[in-house]
User: What shape does this take?
Amino acid sequence: MQLILLPDSEVTRRIEKVRGAMASAGLDAVLIADNANLYYLTGRVFAGYAYIPAKGDPLYFVRRPVRMEGCGVIPVRKPEQIAESVGADTPSSLGLELDTIPYSLVGRLSAIFTDTKIGNASSVMRQARAVKTPEELKKIETSGIRQTHVYSMIPSLFHEGMTDIELQIEIEKASRLEGCLGQFRIAGNSMELYMANLLSGDNADNPTPYDFAMGGEGLDPSLPVGCNGSVIRRGETVMADINGNFTGYMTDMTRTFRVGEISSLAETAHRCSIEICRRLETEGKSGAKASDLYEIAVDMARQAGLHDYFMGHRQKAGFIGHGVGIEINELPVIAPRSRDILAENNVIALEPKFVIPKIGAVGIENTYVVTTTGLRKLTLAPEELENLI
Assistant: This one.
């Protein structure tokens, strides 16, 4: 069984991107163990490590699955065997994913590379993955097409008297039957989410521990976000943010539905969300400052008299957009203190949302590719408020 599932040219392209980020960080090599990063480098998840030196061929140390084959593949039982294979080419500085791997493993690897300075490879990999290759863009575009098809089914899945969790389950079922993998990768350990987040009515105003634009009490304190079992009622909105991972690369899309007539305030806020997206689609070209895009969105909400409801009501999110790819929160981050500069072939999700008390959440979210002339939209479901009854 071949370890590397990517074309040779694609492997070379991705490794060169990692090496460019390594040079900026002053690292002679990186040793990668995180599943998302291993998938990026090889096209599959395995138990083990990828060793990328600044010069020379990469090495892949594999514990499981057994009998992996390919150039540079070395079966290992324990990390100590890595140093034996590197031998005399031991780097003077080595990057480990200090943001994600356990402290005990950092200590063990540091003891193996005794004369090596340890640095952080997490930022290296985030930087390398931020600009997508054509191969990655194809996967993201495919996820966008299939996610859009799932969203077209949502009105037919609703009937009056449903609870929010009942509707969410029906959408999840339709999504899985369409080929959704179900996995919702989020970088770090401070945010968690199941494969869909559906909010109806005033539950959208319930704060969560997470920096999400969408709130929700959740079904249990162990996962305090999203639907809480409330009956979906007339005069409320239903906001659906459903898993878009169909290819290992995901798109992020939110659409809002109404149940009968809703207030003019909610309709105005939803229209403002669409207008913010239209403006940022023009402004969000390569070279744009992420913080400038954030300020444009905030200013538009303020000028519309909607600032109190923008990105939450009782509790506000600290961003209006984020990178998307293998994980849902990649670079760049569209936030007030972000230092990120948009680059061609970044993939970002913009989610300028509002929470209207007693009505619910309104607004949209789309996934885009950054180009030299603006943002190209990949999530093409209708954006207007659709009536579920």
Q: What stands out?
A: The radius of gyration is 22 Å. The first strand starts at residue 29 and ends at 32. The mean pLDDT is 96. The longest helix spans residues 134-157.
